[in-house]
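Notes continue from the previous slide.

Worked example: a multi-chain complex. Inputs as given:
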Amino acid sequence: MSEMINVEEIFASKVFTRATMKERLPKNVYKEVIKVMEQGGELSLAAADVVAKAMKDWAVENGATHYTHWFQPLTGITAEKHDSFVSHPDENGKMIMDFSGKELIKGEPDASSFPSGGLRATFEARGYTAWDITSPAFLKEDATGVILCIPTAFCSYKGEALDKKTPLLRSMEAISEQALRIVRMFGNTEATKVVASVGPEQEYFLVDREKYLQRTDLVFAGRTLFGAPAPKGQELEDHYFGTIRERIGAYMKDLNIELWKLGVTAKTQHNEVAPAQHELAPIYETANIAVDHNQLVMETMKKVAGRHGLTCLLHEKPFAGVNGSGKHNNWSLTTDNGVNLLDPGETPNENIQFLLVLACIIKAVDRHADLLRQSASDVGNDHRLGANEAPPAIISVFLGEQLEDVVKQLVETGEAARCLEGGKLETGVSTLPDFTKDATDRNRTSPFAFTGNKFEFRMVGSADSIASPNTTLNAIVAEAFCEAADVLEKAEDFDLAVHDLIKEYLTKHQRIIFNGDGYSDAWVTEAERRGLPNIKSMIEAVDTLTTEKSVKLFNKFGIFTEAELESREEVLYETYAKTINIEALTMIDMASKQIIPAVIRYTKSLADTVIAVRDAGADASAQADLLKTVSEKLSAMKAALAKLEEVEAKAGAIGNAKEQAFYYKDVVKEAMDELRAPVDEAEMLVDKQVWPVPTYGDLIFEV
Ligand code: ADP
Ligand code: MG
């Protein structure tokens, strides 16, 4: 029997929550903090000192020895530099733990080694971290001890964003301001802001740690670079939602407890499509907190795995031929007086505010499909998008039957007089209840699907930060809201104007709506006919960031300057080149030090067998045939290895980041594929006893 878990007691026990603040701060200071949290502005230094002391006392009572400004540089993961609370001992040699308001609000890590894409030369190394007061501080507990983590944004000396958080926060302000203009026109005078909410569903793989350690590719690249398919894959669909095995269950239980303590609302858990693949989803929350929490989820998944003799793989495609991992980014907009702008209500055709919001989103997604595609790309995701298992690389919007019908009526006649209803679902069993059906079915193949009262952006990669997709979403929709408000605020007849605008937007941008099968080849052709972009890889999407359209958008709302956009481009090209470089070097390493030597040993033992069998007067043709086939694979491997080494060696000389990235994509990756093919074929022929690394079967079926 497992021990009782008291969720209410442990939830957020490591978080400096509002309740904790209320308990520990003088009333006036608490009020000031809440005001800044809710309305923005700056905390006075006097108040910051009081908060810092309370935070430190709370942290120290909970065992903390250090604090850190926790931030999210352009690496896509988090960064922390620990400072202890230790201060100068007094004249009696007694040490008093210290933490000031200044230290809470601002930090200055030596930031020269983070990717900045040219925003900052090494001699201008100053970078500042600034407390994001809207995301609560928390305690991280591990072998280092207990560390007080203060979520921060990270900027250069000149105020340029060096991280993923700053633009996200800027985009949240932009969408709030523009969405407020929309709701005001519909008579909402109470709302003071509109919050972007995000609920990310996180997919992951778990493999046995011992086996993981035997695979250089998993260790260095996070994915297998070689590997023949196991006899069984996911074709029986027996893993999806299947019973959770004991070892995995124990892991999930621990993971939930750790996350709950950190205030992460871990909610759902289940086995995913591929063997060894699982998913966790928290309850949605304010975008920047959701981004922070998703980082904590990924980090905690890895940490807890270690305790169970497991390794958590967050890569988008750890294994060829089986389902990859993504992150469904559920996104919606809610006013602070509780109205979800994406809630259609019972009769969406009569909900004009909803229809305007929907029309604006459709317009935004159509106009900036390229940016949205870019925001969901990372190196690993190139193996998923468009690869017939994940959403295609083409952006389209799924609305479902009910809304599609409403849109159709609006486009055709300018009116939406009727609205399809959900109807009853009859189970045909008298003891089972009949349900009211949703008016909309699901469509798993759509990259951007309306799901009831939110949009689900399904393209995002499992290992990626969700900051960029949400920054982009907020920005493009803010722009559409702004343009709509510019027209409508001036209109003499609001009802007429809004009616015309909805019709105009839907008519102009209906090409982005697609309710069919996104995995089909027919859709690729159809999308091309409609003129929708089909950007096939991460690096082909990079320069969408600095098109005139993009610069105008991000500048207008103060989300990115042109220099900040250029820096992101640079970092993305570099990241791509570096990642493929590591993969290529890892393949070279494995092929030359492990796989080829093992195959050589195997051919030697086959050759010995052939001779011995012949000498004994028996027929050795089967052994000789096998020897011949394996030797051919061996030669192919050797040749492909030499080719990969040759092209890989040339990459370093390419000075331009973009050119180098394309060289890796077009030349190095191809040579990698050429090496993989004969190795995987050989794996199917060679005695398992001599194969030097655990196989796909070992890795994904024996966890
Ligand atoms: P499914 O796999 O069926 O799509 P899950 O329950 O796994 O659904 O995940 C759905 C996610 O969407 C959860 O994180 C949930 O909190 C989130 N979500 C639900 N409603 C909203 C909303 N209005 N805005 C943003 N996210 C939402
Ligand atoms: Mg789910």
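Summary box: The mean pLDDT is 93. Residues 575-701 form a domain with the Four Helix Bundle (Hemerythrin (Met), subunit A) fold (CATH 1.20.120.1560).
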